[in-house]
Amino acid sequence: MSFSPCNAGLSGPMSTAAGAIDNQREGSFAALGNVFLTRLPASPLPAPYVVGFSPDVAAMLGFDASLANAPGFAEFFSGNTTRDWPAASLPYAAVYSGHQFGVWAGQLGDGRALTLGEIEHDGQRFELQLKGAGRTPYSRMGDGRAVLRSSIREYLCSEAMHHLGIPTTRALCVTGSDQSVRREEMETAAVVTRVSPSFVRFGHFEHFYANDRVEALRALADHIIDRFYPACRAAEDPYLALLNECVLSTADLIAQWQAVGFCHGVMNTDNMSILGLTIDYGPFGFMDGFDANHICNHSDSQGRYAYRMQPQIGYWNLFCLAQGLLPLFGERYDDAERSERAVKDAQRVLEGFKGRFAPALEARMRAKLGLETQREGDDALANKLFEIMHANRADFTLTFRHLSKVSKHDASGDTQVRDLFLDRAAFDAWANDYRARLSHETRADAARAEAMNRVNPKYVLRNHLAETAIRMAKDKDFSEVERLAAVLRRPFDEQPEHEAYAGLPPDWATSLEVSCSS
Asked: Annotated active-site positions, please?
């Protein structure tokens, strides 16, 4: 392995792994130049230790699963070695802007994240980012740190979402420290190593639009097209084609969120990925008892990001992205009406969200109900189920999982799902309609149940499960972090030895709250 600034001072497996990281590669985000980022070392994290490590992500990056035990691992992935890197090769924090809770917030940026660089493995390129690595020029009033609690939640949920089949950033590891950090109370610091093909957000485009930096805006759009959407180059308007790709991927993503009862909690435009990935896990939550108006973020006093609002907010955010890209649209129009025609083109593309989202969610709901065919009335059947789930606060995950036991012939398999509803009569009436619908399906009960259990998870990252792991980790017992991560890697499997992880939440779980500090 030739010398790399990233592996300076390291030896053995860590030297090899660090040497694979390149933060000056041609075609990378960093290659766009200093107008997009600021290079600086991470703030030292005293006496770091490993809290969690994903062997799946390690393999994706070409690392051996034993890497977490290598000397220097915690120091490197806490950012401590970056103090010795040459100035031109330092990690970087990116600048962006955004709308937060519907209000223009102006310049934001990576206030507590530093990107180490890229790794290329098996023909794929990934950026590695340290979240919680200390203050940057974009920290505003923040301390630049993440806490153990939020870092464990992001690590677990990143990997849980991936194994549910939902597009997401990934997490290689969490490192912790005894360094004190104040949030609502005194906590300890941690760093989560996030992995993604790109961390570019809607807010990046908003930033350069708001600052009238059209050439920078073009360079950024060209970077995303060339790296991720090369087919857009053949379109009549490549930048409009880029917007269309974002519209479709965002619609698909939110349909997947809705189908598993996932609430992001803070869908600001600076938390929306240009690649349609779930990004920036903060006050997220998987619903227990179904509530269409569920607000998982107790900082969201107006309910802007409630479960039922997520599709609408995704659509609103895409309008903000379209505005950010607007100066690039309509270059084929060489007339005085270019601006007006470009706006109409963007509006037409944005309308594609509705045409994509509804069918995507309907298809997922049919699969969750075990329906191979599409018939009139399927939407009404699904909506009625949600209506009685909402009225009874029936557990979201268990309702759909237990529906696989319902028989198309009689009520003999209804007991488990029926017991989730206080209003048994309402469920019975719906179940009779469901059975009538199943009578039009050719699959036998067993085959349908098998198919349903491949799309309706048994295990999701419920807040109380994460909280248990966090409480143990605060006492330096990280066994539950890894045990829970292992369970969540197989969300659709029965795993009888872990049945307790699939049960209804305990009473104390109702008092748990997550906020923007999470």
From this structure: 270
